[in-house]
Give the backbone structure.
Amino acid sequence: MSAALARSLSSALYHRRRLTLALLLGLPLFWLGVVYCGSLLSLLANSFFGMDPFTGMVKREFTLQNFVDLAAPANLDVILRTVAMATAVTLGCAAIGFPIAYYMARYTRGWVRAAFYLGVMLPLWSSYLVRVYAWKLLLAKEGVVNWVFAESGLSWILNALLSIPVIGGPSLSISTLGTFIVFVYIWLPFMILPIQAALERVPQSLIEASADLGARDAATFRKVIFPLALPGIVAGSIFTFSLTLGDYIIPGIIGDSSLFLGQVVFLQQGTAGNVPLAAAFTVVPIAVMAVYLAIAKRMGAFDAL
Amino acid sequence: MVAAVAFDDVSCAFGPLLAVDRVSLDVHEGEFFTLLGPSGSGKTTCLRMVGGFQFPTRGRVLIHGVDAARRAPYERDVNTVFQDYALFPHMNVRDNIAYGLMVRGVDKAERYRRTDEMLELVHLPGSGARRPAELSGGQRQRVALARALINRPRVLLLDEPLGALDLKLRESMQVELKALQRQVGITFIFVTHDQQEALSMSDRVCVFDRGRVEQIGTPEEIYDRPATRFVAGFVGAGNLLEGAQARRIAGVDGAVMLRAERIRIAKRDAGAGGVPGVVKEVEYLGAFIRYIVDVGDGVELLVNAARRDFARGAEVTLSWPDAACHRIA
């Protein structure tokens, strides 16, 4: 009886492809559409609302005041600092990640590649906070990094770096340079994996064809390998860039006390309770990413897709 | 005259696997030379050694008399049409074809002028702005050809370039390739596992098996006078008779190859000579009929005939001129 029912049900579904699709896709689509994008839209809508200074309640009236406030020198300073950091972190991750991804994709196989995957992803399995605090100890004045420089007689290099205004400070753990190092460390896997995936899809015959047609290795890299890896680099940089733009923990633990975007959002929303201004701050990374992707597309980063 | 490409006692090993085993051969200037063999026979490895993608572990590969030894692909005056075409997916057709000129620093105007010439040559005028992904298999094939020819190499290497095309297109490309080779007048080295393709296009064919050269000769020599049992079996439809069977059926000692189309099939007639047999199977192959005839002792002969005169089970007599029996050492 139940077998017959199951059979007729499965046959009914087989002939109603749209119904099957709706049943399978309904819940995930609801999640993506309503929970994900819907809440994001409501957040964005909030950025156009004001706040009653007396009651602290959100006033549902359209205003651009939040965006005017963003342009205040203190806020602009935070935005520029965060975008500069995100750019530097993305470049740093790309510089370190590309060679590793290239080696993984073109020269490893079997267990060696598995070991590389493990090495890249293993840090992600442990607590993010633990790793950030571990870096605080490593970078402290009494920490191992300082010690290595001192013991090898290279303290002058470290001191020269730390004496650079803006990025320097009393020690690595309380300098912007330290913040940068930890950001690069934390987000590196998100750069390596997409580049590796992009490079893995480049057939060996394209590289051979380039050499066959007279290109030396450097030219083959510039004209064939790099353009084909570019979508992977862009994908990785979306991760590193946006993760840095939104992070509020690392700059709170490591670095001088200058604020980053994520911290300001946290303060406005949690401490000050000014949700509309916090929402306006959140629009900044979204706008920056949109501009970044438009530029990347213009430069042909997605031509190989 | 110096050979365009010469293999002098060349071997190539991948670890314990000997892919190419002491091959010596000469490819003449301006000739259409085909390396024919089943997959894994070493023909592609030989081609890759000419292109510079693989290096011999023994012996020398000479290109126009110069030992190519450890020269990189970009230092060789040869170009390759790859099996998967290897077109650059991020460039349009024009930039693909002009690639060789671009990396050599030829200026843009000259590059585009010659690209248009090449597009004309491969019958794709006006397709320069399209992307490889928008082209059909046959069109990609032509772009790959144009890209390899624009550098004006003295030798063009083709690695099973027609393998991915359907039969009709493959046949028309065979004619076109041959015409193109005559037009540009350079040496073509062509790799294929398709004996029909090899016979129809080549000036000379080299048959490979398990890394060794079995025979080098014109298509007629390969077909009519195969040097080894392997060649006799691999090229064309033939009957290989050995030992006692050869003595009984063909009247000669040693191994004998008898082409299916040289055998005449006739109704059994007590008075006439010939070998008696029974039709075991009849296959209709369009242009001709193939009979499988049982001639006793478990020996079956393939016979091609023009007409379907006999049905399964018919008693027939097979005969052939003495010259049709080719002895194999």
Summary: The two ends of chain A are 51 Å apart (CA to CA). Chain A is about 75% helix and 0% strand. Chain A has two domains: 3-46, 65-304. Residues 45 and 229 of chain A are 37 Å apart (CA to CA).
